[in-house]
Structure formats: C-alpha cells, structure tokens
C-alpha cells in the first residue's frame, strides 16, 4: 500500500509538460532553487538526467543528493516519482 | 593514482565497465557522479575486470554470482564459455595483486591451487544442477505420465465395446 502524497499523484497522473522542477515530489523551494542554479529548472531536465543515468534509481538518488543537497528521503521520493512517471508515459 | 578528471569520457566509461558499475553515457552532467563512483570503487580495492567482450553484462552477472558462491565451483567448469571468462581472471589478477590484494587474496590463492590440481578434466556436471527450474524436471515428467495414465483410464472406461473392437 503506497502512501503517496497529493503532489506525487499530481505529478505522476499526467504528462509533465513544462512543469517546474518544484513540481517533482520531494523537491521543495530550497532544493528547487539549488537545482535551478545548475540549469535544472524544469522537471523535464531532471527527467533528462534520470534517463541519462539509465533510470537507475540508486545512481539518480545519489546524483540528486549531490546536486541539490536533498536528504535520502527526499531523493528517494523524487526518484520514485520519476520512475512511476516513466512507467506511465515514457 | 592518476587523476580521473584528465581522462577522456571513453576512458571513464571503460573504467566503469572494469569495475562492473552499470552506467549511462558519460556526459557533463553525469561525469562527476561517475568519477566519484570510480574513486569509491578504487578505494574499496575491487579487482578490475577488463573485458573486450561486448556481452559483458550477462557475463558480469554470472561472474559476480560466482564470487559469492564457494570458489571451488569456479575450478570445476573450465570448458564452459562463461567460466572460461572467469578463468582468464586469475591470470589478470596476477598482475593486479600488487595493487589490490586484500579483498581477494583468499579466493585467488584458493582458485590458483584448485586450478593447479584439477586442470581441464573437471566434469561439466557440477554446473548443470544450477539450472533454475521452479518445478524439478522429474516432477514434470511424473506429472505428464500421471495425466497420460489418467486420460487412458478415462478413455478405456468410457469406450466399452466399439472402440475395443476397433482397436482389435
């Protein structure tokens, strides 16, 4: 039984289009700002990184923690969010 | 320890393959992550497994599996294609033993002594029991026979006169 948040459900339920990076589950204002500084200002750019890492959850989680300063929970949640989005739409 | 930064993307990719790290393309955004992974792998002292074989994915899985199982099984299947790959490893480790000895010292000496004592004559049998079947083969045969016998009984009990005459 998954305990997903509304934010997660909102993201995974439709194509991400031009949504901001803060629309990703686990990514709030602060983390979003840090990512945007590095050029990851849209959710699809982060998706791009996820795909570059061959959709490897571990790798992506590590990268995200590195790039944004996210903790394990936040990074894990974001990874899960992207994974499910890919399962549905990719 | 040569600097990873100065290596080309292809070199980084090859190094990742050597350490068995599954990876995507080495581009700007992924490079620093992969460099870090390589540093960790080097620090752990993993043996590098260079392979020019393009099917390294499948063989790597089998090789790591063999690492975890008792080492004696490696000496046993010399003739198999994938264990011949593992056979090339001890020769390579001979070169690397200077750099990274600690983790695989025991297995390598184990393997070397085993290689010396059982050259090329080990049977293929030890490999086959590891075939992954959910239901053992003999169970499948027995079940098939049981179904066949059952059907025959049903058939013979249903058709009393005519069919027997037909058979005769």
Automatic annotation (TrEMBL), chain A:
GO cellular component terms, A-Z: condensed chromosome; nucleus
Annotated GO MF terms: DNA binding
Main location: nucleus
Keyword Nucleus found: yes
Domain of life: Eukaryota
InterPro entries: BAF (IPR051387), BAF_prot (IPR004122), BAF_sf (IPR036617)
Keyword terms, alphabetized: Nucleus
TM spans (from-to): none
GO biological process annotation, one example: chromosome organization
Subcellular location: Nucleus
Record's protein name: Barrier-to-autointegration factor-like protein
Organism: Cyclopterus lumpus
Phylogenetic placement of the source organism: Eukaryota, Metazoa, Chordata, Craniata, Vertebrata
TrEMBL record, chain B:
SUPFAM superfamilies assigned to the protein according to its UniProt record, in alphabetical order: LEM domain
Every LEM domain range: 1-45
Pfam family, one: LEM
InterPro entries, A to Z: LEM/LEM-like_dom_sf, LEM_dom, LEM_domain
Region (Disordered): 40-127
Keywords: Membrane, Transmembrane, Transmembrane helix
Membrane-spanning parts: 137-155
Alphabetical list of PANTHER family matching this protein: EMERIN (EMERY-DREIFUSS MUSCULAR DYSTROPHY), LAMINA-ASSOCIATED POLYPEPTIDE THYMOPOIETIN
Name of this protein: LEM domain-containing protein
Origin species: Cyclopterus lumpus (Lumpsucker)
């Amino acid at each position: 039984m998954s305990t997903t948040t509304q934010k997660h459900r909102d993201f995974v339920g439709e194509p991400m289009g031009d949504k901001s990076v803060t629309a990703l589950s686990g990514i709030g204002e602060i983390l979003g700002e840090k990512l945007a500084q590095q050029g990851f200002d849209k959710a699809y750019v982060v998706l791009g990184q996820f795909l570059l890492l061959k959709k490897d959850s571990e790798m992506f989680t590590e990268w995200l923690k590195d790039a944004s300063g996210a903790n394990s929970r936040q990074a894990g949640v974001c990874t899960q969010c992207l994974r499910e989005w890919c399962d549905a739409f990719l | 320890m040569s600097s990873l930064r100065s290596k080309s993307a292809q070199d980084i990719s090859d190094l990742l393959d050597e350490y068995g790290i599954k990876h995507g393309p080495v581009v700007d955004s992924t490079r620093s992550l992969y460099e870090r992974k390589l540093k960790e792998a080097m620090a752990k002292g993993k043996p590098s497994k260079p392979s020019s074989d393009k099917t390294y994915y499948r063989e790597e899985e089998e090789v790591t599996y063999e690492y975890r199982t008792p080492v004696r099984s490696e000496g046993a299947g010399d003739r198999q294609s994938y264990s011949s790959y593992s056979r090339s490893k001890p020769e390579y480790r001979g070169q690397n033993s200077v750099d990274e000895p600690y983790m695989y010292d025991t297995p390598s000496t184990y393997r070397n002594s085993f290689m010396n004592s059982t050259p090329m004559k080990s049977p293929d049998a030890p490999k086959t029991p590891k075939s992954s079947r959910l239901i053992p083969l003999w169970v499948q045969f027995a079940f098939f026979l049981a179904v066949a016998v059952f059907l025959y009984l049903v058939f013979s009990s249903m058709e009393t006169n005519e069919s027997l005459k037909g058979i005769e």
